[in-house]
């Protein structure tokens, strides 16, 4: 039977990551990036339409990282959030509510849930709770089904549900391995492809390829930033001749580090940074470029590592006589 969706029920990231790689992930699910060792906990939220999910009083720091946390009521671990639950809980909650709404709407269509099994105890739970699992899975649509993906090495003779033994290692790092859990799993991939619309699969793969391309471009940019920052930290700024006064274009990590290193050798009049305009750094104002043109005859040091030519063009449009210096050239 064809299904409209494949949906990850955990128990960790390799399921959703590999679904994306092979075109079977059509939307962002609630459990995609969580560690959910308890299948019982996952089924509870499906049965109760996520009532009580992500209550703030149940959340606590995980490994001391404000953007990593666990839920003590169910043992779920959140490792990939972009915000701190302590400082931006409402934003976090809103993000998950949108995921929940989409999730519940989608699973009203024929859906195949994928659940990775990583323990003998979960095998026993599945065997002993067949009727309950089936009832919860089919709650939103009688045609829904669940397939269990069992880590190689876990003893299993039979299950009351379809299952596949996954021979690849269960790994989370690096990124390529995280997405490679389905690699060489020919029987399982054929099972999925036979049940999913080929056009949607191709569309999902195209979307994933674009996302991966953007991600690697970001990683490459971060690598350039890291190398420049490393060079800056190893530079003897006292051996460099600097203007008496400067404006720093860029108020990110590199710009701030540059400021700390040169502030005793020259006067930093202002930072220029569109996203941070209106703030201050150590009493130095952060301006938009339209405000910075008031400081004519003050040279610019460009600290960012991207789009140098367009930044120069933008500065010169406001002041065609502006002096522009690249930080990369300064520290060569």
Question: What does this protein look like?
Answer:
This protein has 332 residues and is an alpha/beta fold. It has two domains: 192 residues, no CATH class; 94 residues, Rossmann fold, CATH 3.40.50. The chain is built from twelve helices and 14 strands. A six-stranded mixed beta sheet has the order 11-12-10-9-13-14, sandwiched between helices. A four-stranded parallel beta sheet has the order 1-6-7-8. The protein is elongated and about 75 Å long. It starts with a strand and ends with a helix.
Task: Compose a concise summary of this entry.
The protein is an alpha/beta fold and 332 residues long.
List the topology elements:
Layout: E1 5-8, H1 13-21, E2 34-35, H2 39-47, E3 59-62, E4 65-71, E5 77-78, H3 89-106, E6 111-117, H4 120-128, H5 130-137, E7 145-151, E8 163-166, H6 175-178, H7 186-195, H8 198-233, E9 245-249, H9 253-262, E10 267-272, E11 280-281, E12 284-287, H10 289-292, E13 300-302, H11 308-318, E14 324-326, H12 327-330
Short key terms for the protein model shown above:
332 residues; alpha/beta; Rossmann fold; 2 domains; six-stranded mixed sheet; four-stranded parallel sheet; 12 helices; 40% helix; 18% strand
User: Share of helix among residues?
Assistant: 25-40%
Number of helices: 12
Percent strand equals: 15-25%
Mean pLDDT: 89
Which class do the helix and strand fractions yield? alpha/beta
Major pleated sheet: 6 strands, mixed
Parts with pLDDT < 50 across at least 5 consecutive residues: none
Note the overall shape.
elongated
**Whole-Å distance between the termini?**
63 Å
Number of discrete domains: 2
Radius of gyration: 26 Å
- Strand arrangement within the widest β-sheet reads 11-12-10-9-13-14
The H-and-E topology, N to C, reads as: EHEHEEEHEHHEEHHHEHEEEHEHEH
Give me the count of strands. 14
